[in-house]
Amino acid sequence: MKKQFNRMRQLANQTVGRAEKTEVLSEDLLQVEKRLELVKQVSHSTHKKLSACLQGQQGVDVDKKSKKHPLTTLAQCMVDGAAVLGDESLLGKMLKLCGETQDKLAQELILFELTTERDVIEPLYDLAEVEIPNIQKQRKYLAKLVLDMDSARTRFYQSTKSSGLSSNLQPTGAKADHLREEMEEAANRMEICRDQLSADMYSFVAKEIDYASYFQALIEVQAEYHRKSLELLQSVLPQIKAHQETWVEKPCYGKPLEEHLALSGRDIAFPIEACVTMLLECGMQEEGLFRIAPSASKLKKLKASLDCGVLDVQEYSADPHAIAGALKSYLRELPEPLMTFELYNNWIQASNIQDQDRRLQALLNACEKLPPSNNNNFKYLIKFLSKLTEYQDVNKMTPGNIAIVLGPNLLWTHNEGNITEMMTTVSLQIVGIIEPIIQHADWFFPGEIEFNVTGNYGSPVHTNHNANYSSMPSPDMDQMDRRQTDQSRRPLSVATDNMMLEFYKKDGYDPPKTSSCSCVST
Description:
Elements: H1 2-15, H2 27-53, H3 62-68, H4 70-85, H5 90-162, H6 174-206, H7 208-246, H8 257-264, H9 270-282, H10 296-307, H11 313-317, H12 320-333, H13 344-351, H14 356-369, H15 372-389, H16 392-395, H17 399-410, H18 419-439, H19 441-444, E1 449-450, E2 461-462, H20 479-483, H21 497-501, E3 504-505, E4 508-509
Antiparallel strand pairs: 1-2, 3-4
């Protein structure tokens, strides 16, 4: 009790400046003391944030951590979902494969978290909550011993002054001896504590490289985890892609033509063949085919059916306008027009040629530059449209009318202008491209064509019904000979610019004089 009183009095005197405070640590150790507090704060905050990054429960064994880990739960959910959907569905296969992958990833993540806990989080906790606090606790104890030493020294010197002795003479007597022993004992205790504290502080400084290695370990553990996870994901990706590629039901609307043909193993796009073969059976004499808009709901249903490869022919045979609308939508939704962006200028330049023979030859040159897949599908479509015009007296769809409603779906530019421009100059040029190709389909694409390519539909074979082609070159003739065929063998009629202008008026389209059907592009 007396010692505490003396300590408090000494502290009060030092506080108000009536007594000197002894500093027993060197300047270097005082700097270490300040650094201790900073390292403690940083280690504590890092430990807290790093612990929050772990998904699994900390401080438990592998089995318990695995059962409650979010990634393990996700994996189990996927596997259960796969069992519900079954292996016969693509989603079922994907869920099963992904569920197994997620489970393996979960095991890698659990191993990563356990290693991180052991090599990083726990050492950081010990540093911030054990090692540094112990040094700081020892520092506080040293401060208390220094205060005791200063207090004992003060009492001893006060005893010297009260005895009237000079500062060079030591007081004698029992009281003086007691005070001297108390002062020396306090100094000894302070020195022992100071030496121990100094050793601990210097040890802390020397071990900073060990503390830094915690963070090196963190990066190494993360790198190993991500490396294994990447290997696992890369090993499963080919299986996932294989499931996708071998799946029969592949969407086709809005997909590049080459991609659809490659995935489906077809030469003619499924929507084109399906719609053409159905129209050959039920729509050739339908008035306004491709012009009259179908029911929106019926069109949406048919497009969805074509997209998944399931088609009820009988259901749609009674609605040829829906079939025609589905074909137009497919052509319009292609990322690149069937006649390609690359050849856009070739087509437009060909349409601007005044001489009929040279114009047809330029259009033929552009046709022959089409990529094989585009050429095959364009030929298939033109042959069908040519056959459709054979019934123009009934369906009112002349080559000009067909070109008006289908042309903008076969060719457009990357940077489409305003609607006024598209409805006049550009559309006029496109109609001037499509109409002569339809009119002279058998010259552009000699020979017969089997519309029912896959054999899924009953459709007729296209034959040459155009009397103008009685003197056309043989389809067996090679390309060079065909190009050099006498000019008199080329088609005799092609729409002139003046005729094309008759299709357009200020408020919309008017039909050609040879047709009684008013056609509006949709």
